[in-house]
Amino acid sequence: MSNIKSRFAPSPTGYMHIGNLRTALYSYLIAKSQGGKFMLRIEDTDQNRFVEGAMDVIYRTLDICGLEYDEGPDKDLGNGPYIQSQRRDIYVEYAKKLVDLGHAYYCFCSKERLDGLRADLEAQGLPYEYDGCCKKLTKEEIQAKLDAGEPYVIRQLMPKEGVSVYEDAVYGTISINNNTLEDQILLKSDGLPTYNFANVVDDHLMGVTHVVRGNEYLTSTPKYNHLYNAFGWEAPCYIHLPHITKEGGKKLSKRDGDASFEDFYNKGYLTEAIINYVALLGWSPGGEREIFSLKELEEVFSIKGINNSPAVFDLVKFRWMNGEYIKMMKPEDFHAAALPYYKQALTREVNLERISSLLQSRVEVLSEIPDYVDFIENVCEYDVSMYVHKKMKTTVEGSLETLTKLVPVLEGINDWSEENIHTTIMQHIADLGVKNGIVLWPLRTALSGKMSTPGGATEIAFILGKDETINRVNQAIEFIKASL
Ligand code: GLU
């Protein structure tokens, strides 16, 4: 086992954004592909954002996706606790240490003062930045305020001159002018750390070597590096990931139902397909192949394959990939997965196994199933113009004639097996001396009222049963007559 340790450090928001899932996946794969360890840490120091049950969403999603962590809240390898709100004392200790080292200072500025400062700067069209007022306090003044129990925060003392430079594994050399670095808050007045402080302390104390996260942290990373340097710690390898957008640069959104793992999972996307597709959002295996199981990804993943151009979430491709995974399912597994969707649309007792065998190669997403089978319950409302099919050379009048001739043929089938239905209808077509479509198109339309169905006319007739088939053909005859 190598010394590599990566981590996934989500804030419990109540759902798993696709971008977060990708962070978890890449982090997991970086560790696994190099024989390292993958750790889970919960970053819940922003108590204002507390969401009931949010932690469970994280555990459940990782579990469903098979992203098993070696170390985490319920697997303490001696670096715990792994939930930041349970590490308060550690952050206070390190923040004070940093004050002693001369890289941080107490700040007693009131909210009113800071609001005033913000308003002044805004009025001048300048961005807000703390003015360093409390830097000037003497040791004695600080002690007196602390003794008097004045609320305080601890701020990082940033260098104001020069340039900070670091190497990101994806974005290359990043340099930031130090005069843009604010004296950011490390410890808040409630005694809890900011993300900016906690991530550094924890990544160091927990032995994290590889930090994978969204590129919104790319420009704050120099501040973290100053913390590492101040403590005399080694900074980790940084792997910042590009944003995921839709075509045209639009953000994935909760409202459109395409932002989170749950959105897709609940629509009947398969976990394996989600993982496979998400893996390709910013990483390329460097060949034509696109279908990879998690196990295969663990073999082939490499940091070198991650690119920094925005990853485009292509729903059409994602659906295609999900369809490929559906095709790969064992028929009995597909049937089991399809059952709840049949229930949404069907109460009629029909041969669901047969429907599953027809659907498995057609469906891209399980949630399409009700739309495929709803006609079995009731023939869909349709327009007589559906009987007109250019390629099949069918007309409304012709269809009326075909269907009328079909009724006695269907009535004559005693054993309603799929094979019998098929041979009888094909014989009838041969006797008429017409092309297949002349009979099959009107029949399928009469039975379903749909342009696309799980199978052809004979399969549908079999599924519907003899009585229902003949009923529907008779109804269609009446319907066409009424329209002429
Ligand atoms: N808690 C941070 C977030 O959810 C994680 C950032 C990081 O991985 O360092 O955005």
Which terms would index this structure?
single chain, 484 residues, alpha/beta, four-stranded parallel sheet, 19 helices, 11 strands, 10% strand, binds glutamic acid
List segments where confidence is low: pLDDT < 50 over at least 5 consecutive residues. Answer: none
Our measurement of the CA-to-CA distance between the termini, rounded to an integer number of angstroms, reads 78 Å
Number of strands: 11
Rough outline? elongated
Please, what is the average pLDDT?
Answer: 95
Oligomer: single chain
User: Radius of gyration, Cα only, in angstroms?
Assistant: 32 Å
Share in helix: 40-55%
Q: What's the main sheet like? A: 4 strands, parallel
Structural class: alpha/beta
Strand portion, in percent?
5-15%
- Count of separate DSSP helical elements: 19
Bound molecules: glutamic acid
Lateral arrangement of strands in the main beta sheet: 2-1-8-9
Compressed to H and E, one letter per element, the order equals EHEHHEHHEEEEHEHEEHHHEHHHHHHHHH
Structure described in brief:
The protein is an alpha/beta fold and 484 residues long. Helices cover 46% and strands 10% of the residues.
Description of the molecule:
The protein is of the alpha/beta class and 484 residues long. The chain has 19 helices and eleven strands. A four-stranded parallel β-sheet has the order 2-1-8-9, with helices on one face. Helix 9 packs across helix 11 (315-328), helix 12 packs across helix 14 (369-377) and helix 17 packs parallel to helix 18. The longest helix has 18 residues, at 466-483. The N and C termini lie far apart (78 Å). Glutamic acid binds at residues 9-11, 43, 195, 199, 213.
